[in-house]
Design brief:
Largest sheet: none
Order of helices and strands: HHHHHH
Helix content: over 70%
Radius of gyration: 29 Å
Strand content: under 5%
Number of helices: 6
Length: 171
């Protein structure tokens, strides 16, 4: 029976060849989804480059001349990078830079410092959750620990010391 094959074997063989041909054909045709993904990656990289340039321009200015609106514009650029393409290698860099900018804003603009510190903490935590192998892991954990310590100090200074009442004996 070595020279003859069953009709079902020939059918299975033809189906396998046909399926492989279809798979090959579809893999060679660029899908609109992959084209859109590529475009998003390119847009995200360009956004990151603009954010880096805007941050560099901001850092050239003396600290006293830096305006809140300028910080916010740079933050918007950084925040858009992981939204556009969370898989590019600049995405964790963007989140880290946004967290650092928020920390700087907390020092520069004291009336809203608590809000900026909270946003920095959220960004560091998001970075650690979404990119657990990030090269910024140690720095992010340290920044969170420092902010926690500073928050504890602020709470201790802001709240009055507990009063201890000593009972009086009535005579």
């Amino acid at each position: 029976m070595s020279g003859t094959s069953k009709p079902t074997d020939q059918l299975g063989s033809k189906a396998a060849v046909w399926a492989a041909s279809l798979l090959l054909a579809f893999s060679l045709v660029p899908s609109p989804l992959s084209a859109g993904t590529t475009q998003k990656r390119l847009t995200a990289r360009a956004q990151f480059d603009r954010a880096e340039a805007a941050r560099a321009a901001l850092e050239v200015k003396p600290i006293a001349e830096r305006k809140l609106a300028e910080y916010q514009a740079v933050l918007r650029l950084y925040r858009n990078v992981p939204i556009l393409s969370p898989i590019i290698h600049q995405a964790p860099d963007s989140i880290f830079q946004a967290a650092q900018l928020n920390q700087e804003m907390a020092q520069r603009f004291p009336p809203d410092a608590a809000k900026y510190r909270a946003e920095a903490r959220n960004l560091y935590q998001m970075l650690l959750r979404q990119y657990p192998q990030t090269r910024y892991r140690k720095q992010s954990n340290q920044a969170i620990a420092i902010m926690d310590s500073e928050d504890e100090e602020r709470t201790a200074v802001a709240s009055p010391p507990a009063r201890v009442e000593i009972g009086r004996a009535h005579v």
